[in-house]
Design a protein that fits this description.
241 residues, Tetracycline Repressor, domain 2, mainly alpha, 10 helices, 63% helix
Length: 241
């Protein structure tokens, strides 16, 4: 995931991951540029496996989902699934990478603004809005995998930590930029505030999964914005000292 300060705005609408994959397949209307039918089917099959696994990992967790569960839910033969992924961890790595792309394109890439305060608010509002969409499973996925992934999971655990760290860093940089224009309170530790936002969001989607969410995520988001943003705070931030 790229840093928010290095990104430009995007006009891409929030498109479900499976549909977005189709958009990437061809950049011209020339039939000669289209991939061969067998390669096209292979891409579609791989994307199907990733999306089904994302749903199963989000709903049941990584450990409770076996590769046979994924195979049965896709209605593929074992041979078709193993042609693309040899192990459940390989599937999980692809799922986390797909989630990273979604965060980059549908979250961070949709919140660009010349005003740091507006950009930070847009990041928070966008995250809340995405979690109201049934097709957006990535925050719940991140929460489930973060809770389960350990050192024994090797590359998968590292990939989950990396993704979470990238999300925190996008928020941390946005908070620092907001402090520099005196829109956020100087007393705030940007890193801790970013962790707070991620923990609140992931905690909320987990609680909602259990049927005990309480206030809505947008309501919680508005409360965080009120606490973090102080338009009249003219004192220098710690990062400016």
């Amino acid at each position: 995931m790229r840093s928010r300060r290095r990104q430009s705005g995007s006009n891409t609408s929030a498109t479900p991951p499976a549909e977005r994959e189709d958009t990437r397949k061809s950049t011209s209307g020339n039939p000669a540029d289209a991939p061969p039918p067998s390669r096209q089917r292979g891409r579609e099959t791989r994307q199907l496996i990733i999306e089904v696994a994302r749903r199963l990992f989000s709903e049941h967790g990584y450990r409770a989902t076996g590769i046979t569960d994924i195979q049965m839910a896709t209605a593929l033969t074992k041979g078709a699934l193993y042609h693309h992924f040899k192990t459940k961890q390989e599937v999980a790595l692809a799922v986390v990478e797909a989630a990273r792309q979604d965060y980059d394109e549908q979250w961070a890439g949709q919140a660009a603004s010349a005003d740091p305060g507006e950009q930070f608010e847009a990041l928070l509002d966008r995250l809340a809005a995405l979690n109201e969409q049934p097709s957006w499973r990535n925050c719940l996925l991140l929460a489930m995998l973060s809770a389960e992934a350990g050192e024994a999971d090797g590359a998968m655990a590292a990939k989950v930590r990396e993704l979470r760290g990238q999300i925190v860093e996008v928020l941390r940089e946005a908070i620092i930029a907001t402090q520099r224009v005196h829109r956020a309170a100087a007393r705030i530790d940007a890193g801790l505030a970013a962790e707070w936002i991620v923990c609140t969001t992931c905690g909320h989607v987990l609680a909602r999964k259990l049927g005990s969410a309480g206030p809505g995520l947008q309501e919680l988001t508005d409360a965080m914005k009120k606490w973090l943003l102080h338009p009249n705070d003219s004192s220098p931030s710690e990062q400016d000292k």
